[in-house]
Amino acid sequence: MQLDAGAQERTPDPGAWRPVSYSDLTAPAPANATFVDIWKEEIEANNKTYREKGDFRFAGGNAPATEAHFVIWSPAKSVVLSILNTATHCTTKQRDAGVLVKLCPMRLVIYEGVRTQVLDADRGCFVEIDPSIGQQSSVAAAYAAYDLGARTIKTGLVVMGQAVEGCSHGIPLPR
Q1: How far, in Å, CA of 75 to CA of 10, rounded?
Q2: What is the pLDDT of residues 2-38, one digit of tens each?
Q3: Less Cβ around it within 10 Å: N or C end of the chain?
Q4: What is the DSSP string of 53-102?
């Protein structure tokens, strides 16, 4: 996913809650290059930790790393909220019904013309679903929306129909 703000359409109804999207960063490819670039230092630190422990299974790519993102497009600017999930940068928040919720680092990236601004945005909730139960949206889902009036990206996480406490965030966009 290459972000080119000048070539994008405005996000329709940015205030509507929509599921976040996920990218596997273990094998760098054009489709995930933007997210690998956003997290390059943390991905390399994660790779180094695996190598130092003698784990070289990922020599052809990256050690396990995934990310979740929410993108807002406008004719002049694009904004990406990204949450990185690695073994070395996340902590377990809760485990329930085959769902693992982790607290992981978040970044807010603003693309405006040729200018890029990368801001750390504290920690956010990342959901992992046990593969044996499948990726059923009825089990767990992460959502985001953009509150235009407040200039804030809102996030939320639902597991088994219940909002997860501490996983609803409002991330203000800088002026």
Answers
A1: 6
A2: 454 444 567 777 788 999 999 999 998 999 999 999 9
A3: C
A4: TT--TTTTS-SSEEEEEEEEE-SS-EEEEEEEEETTT-EEEEEETTEEEE
